[in-house]
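Forum: Protein Structure Q&A
Topic: Joint prediction for protein chains with partners

I've read a bunch of threads here and the consensus seems to be that you should model interacting components together rather than docking separate models afterwards. I'd like to see that in practice. Below is the full input, 553 residues plus whatever partners are listed. Could one of the regulars post the assembled result?
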Amino acid sequence: MNKPIQCVVLDEDICNGCIHCIKCCPTEAIRVKNQKAVITPERCITCGECIRVCPSHAKKALRDPLEIIDGFKYKVALPHPALYAQFNNLEDKTTVLRALLDYGFDEVFEVAAASETVTEMTRRLISEKKAVLPIISSTCPAVIRLIRLRFPNLIKNISPLYAPREVAASTALLAAMNKTLMPREDIGIILIAPCPGQVASVRVPLGFEKSGIDAVIAISDIFPKMPELMKNADITEAIGTQFSIAGRVGASWGSTGGEAKGILSDNCLSADGIENVIKVLSDLEDERFQNLDFIELTACPGGCVGGMLTVENPYIARVKLAKLRKYLPVSGTRLDDIEINTLFRDGEIEYLPAFNLSDNISESIRLMDELDEILKTLPNLDCGCCGSPTCRAFAEDIVRGGEGKCIYSLIKGT
Amino acid sequence: MILKFDIPGDDFTRAGEASSAIKNKLKQTGFSPEVVRKVSIAVYEAEINSIIHANGGTITLTADEEAIVAVIADTGKGIPDIEAAMREGFTTACDNIRKLGFGAGMGLPNMRKYTDEFDIQSKVGKGTTVTMKIYNKQE
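Posted by a regular:
Agreed with the consensus. Here's the joint model:
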């Protein structure tokens, strides 16, 4: 059983109890109680929407501080491809990778390189019909948590493969241990991530037992250190070490559509933005799509470049990524170089019925009737003033035993 | 639990609203994902049918711990030959509707396929009523 998780750090002193976050949460996981936002952890899918909309910045995206890398003797950076899209006039991603070494990492291994391995394996699963089609990408942690919470019928469609960041972690660890002969605990596998969802997926994994990643730092935290290092980066030496291995396929994973493009099938669907993702999953659940092979879904608008821990506008980042990709080889990695079994997740994803009114169906039906009766007495303005996102959510909170008053009804004296 | 919906007859873009609302409520009530899926697909097909052929209608859904029963009724032109209408691929939808991707002749067969009990009553010129029952406990 996975523990409930949150990817959000809430500063209660700054939270002024406004209603922005409760209104935007796609799973209605937040309420305002006593003028402070309260998150129900088991409903949180770590999409980060509440962080995005908070006008007073009371919510921060969870991640590890940069200093965490000092705790490891041998430091391996796993940069997410969204990192490459943050810089102006970048012609060669080798510059970014070199700068990471100069920052203090002993080794870099691109997540984009592992993306290519995952892409190739996914293609094989589709052509050999070894997975339930359409395969839903396992990459976006928020999407996976959304599916297990709201779309249990689609759990079987989630890719049996690890997300590229985990594949990168195991590949990089193996290489580092072979190279240094150091014990596991001396080696730090550090993901440079675009979103707090990835932080959460490392701390409380879903669909696998344990993450191979030791710490997750933010693209936005390391970003300010980079320009100076990149200016001085000597890439003539770096080229020799061949660490810029990912090609166009891997680098494309940074923004929407990139992942599906590598599948090389006409029957791929890509959608981004959590509300759009919900629409796609809902229609998919009702079997309204036919003959799809692969579905790429990301909670953030624009894909990973739209993550809460990035800096650049996601749509500009996308242009930058496209430019950078142009002169890369198609793919830099080969599936033959890897033990295929290690690509498959070692755990199941289970339905989390956190929305059920009760464990018992008759009791649930009774509560649902009660809920509908309460709803009839409410103004249905969905103003959020009571602290619940909608009048329906308010009625639901009441039948679940919560307390509260409809502010509108109080003012109107009804 | 009794849920009632009107199906607007003139608006394709709103097709699926009722089945979607039903799906969400049933999920929250704790019916198994498989039961909810069947109800949702069957009701959606019925919803589409009443829009295409009968200018809308009504849905009445009752749910208890034993079963879910959905009754979709319209006052449209009715079905002259029900046996023919139940055959896969049989359709009377016009070309325009078919171009939109509807009217493939799978609606009624799918409703029967996804439900445990299926009944259809129709009178030409009076309308059609479909009654579908799905048991909570599936073998």
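Chain A touches chain B through 22 residues (CB under 8 Å).
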